[in-house]
Amino acid sequence: MSVTSSLLVGSETQTYRRQRFTTGIQRVIREAHEGLADYLGAAGASISWVRTDDEIPSDTYRTNPYLASDPVVGSAEAPLADIDTLLILDIGLGINFGAIIQRKSIRPLRVITLIHDIMPITHPQWFPGDDRSHFRRYLQKVLHVSDEIIVPTAWVKGEIESLGWRTTATIHVIHLGSTFPASQPKIRPPHQLSLLYVSTVEPRKGHQQLMGAFNILRQAEHDVSLTLVGRRGWGGHELYAGIEQHPDFGGRLKWLQGIDDNQLLSLASSSTLGVFPSEAEGFGLFIEEALSCGLDVVASDIPPFVERRQAGLWLSTLDPHSLADSILSAHAAPRSATRQKPVRTMRDFAYDVSQLTLTAERSHPR
User: Fold this and answer.
1) What is the pLDDT of residues 293-311, one digit of tens each?
2) Residue ranges of the alpha helices (H) in the chain?
3) For the chain, which domains are there?
């Protein structure tokens, strides 16, 4: 169903435009923008970037070729006064919520917000004090101004509802997906284990448990290597030292930071198994990304991962011995020539968000 061509969607991008690197959140925004530009355009709507504050917009994102190709931030700015629907896909701690409230008081404005997770509240020990307090205030404001809220898993929806905070927004579960093209499941060498883990390197991501499993496999004389991909996070000084001082560091154990997608795809092609032993996630993109590269994945049995059970995904407790056993089991399992169900992609996510955006417009016309 088409909508009037005057429907204008604005994506709040002030924080996003200041980024030089791409972690999971920036990747989600970049890929969602590309899909939304296509799907909304096909329906007669349009999407542009918008800012809620008066700061001069940053162009730092242009130093990153991947972000620089974003079709939304590369378009003309849309004034907040002109848009009909506001999308907040980032964690924008600098958003001027007062301006949004004022704009909503003048004429209808639908606000659709993506909440990736609420871990600064549910797991405060993993975040600096300032981040926790800033995020708490941000979430309260988001719940106040939003008409629709998107969460990546039912687990995040349950965590938000368990807070008991007031909101009139409807919460929608829309899973994220892979940004990589689909590959057939890989045929693994029977005795070679090449493990790949892509994630920010910090204590909550389970690197220490994974290192323990790696040591167990090495002590059992398995032909195993481990490649970690990701920039340093917060509070991981002991973890970083443990990685860089490991006797296999630079050989069977590698840690790569700041690589691009082509390099990552090349790594995946030379790996035999993906691993994702995180202690807590809102979603965890690397599961779908590794599966789309043809790798099976051994992941921790946390609720957001259990929710996405699918062919090629193996779940394990975070005990290093259990993790090592699960890695061996996944590696030894026979492979089918194809996956029964396609791996979900970020195009799928963007389509679902576009339909929510258009449905909201039809349900609440201007």
Assistant:
1) 999 999 999 999 999 999 9
2) 24-42, 65-68, 97-106, 119-122, 129-145, 154-163, 207-219, 237-244, 261-269, 286-292, 303-306, 320-332, 346-363
3) 8-177+346-363 (3.40.50.2000), 192-332 (3.40.50.2000)
